[in-house]
Amino acid sequence: MSTHVVALVGSLRDQSYTRLASRIALDAAAAHGATTDLIDLGELDLPVFDADDREVGDAADLKARVADADSVLLATPVYHGSYSGVLKNALDYCGFDEFEHTTVGLLAVAGGGFPSPALDHLRIVGRSLNAWVLPHQAALPHVYRQFEDGELVDEDLRERVEKLGVRLVEYAHIEPDPRTVEARENVGADD
């Protein structure tokens, strides 16, 4: 069974550590037999989400690419203890049609030492969309110290990010759990 892994990169920076780390995870997924797609949100036209106008800009393209995935990597820089507004905006365009019964992996990079809350917040979002969120996640603290010339030089962190890519393939076709309380109670879940 073929597996397709998509990464949503929630950073707009030209020299984004989030993008670099996402490529490492996707390369590991590809080495494990998957096809991959890196969705660089900085390259898409996604105005601030307006529920009354859901099909603007590149929204349809984003939703189709995410829906095509067996597994999705949500990758974010840490801003004020949480995930980026860019990623939040992209996730607002998506919903159950794109994420339900999809395996989701989590990756956060931080300039400081506390990337974990952003991962916790994304885990809640994934579960609310009835996705299956991998227990394994990758957090890169003090990220500017971890890269040299675009390469992740900390071997332990590199191994963790690569393992995340492998897990996205290994668990891509896991049998879905029954719907979560959040999914059952969400008015838009069955639209």
TrEMBL record:
Pfam families: FMN_red
InterPro entries in UniProt: Flavoprotein-like_sf (IPR029039), FMN_Rdtase-like_dom (IPR005025), NAD(P)H-dep_reductase (IPR050712)
Name used for this protein in its record: NAD(P)H-dependent oxidoreductase
Signal peptide per UniProt: none
Classification via Gene3D superfamilies: 3.40.50.360
GO cellular component, one term: cytosol
UniProt-listed PANTHER family: CHROMATE REDUCTASE (PTHR30543), NAD(P)H-DEPENDENT FMN REDUCTASE LOT6 (PTHR30543:SF21)
Positions of the NADPH-dependent FMN reductase-like domain: 4-142
Family: Belongs to the SsuE family. Isf subfamily.
Molecular function in Gene Ontology: FMN binding; oxidoreductase activity
Cofactor(s), by name: [4Fe-4S] cluster
Domain of life: Archaea
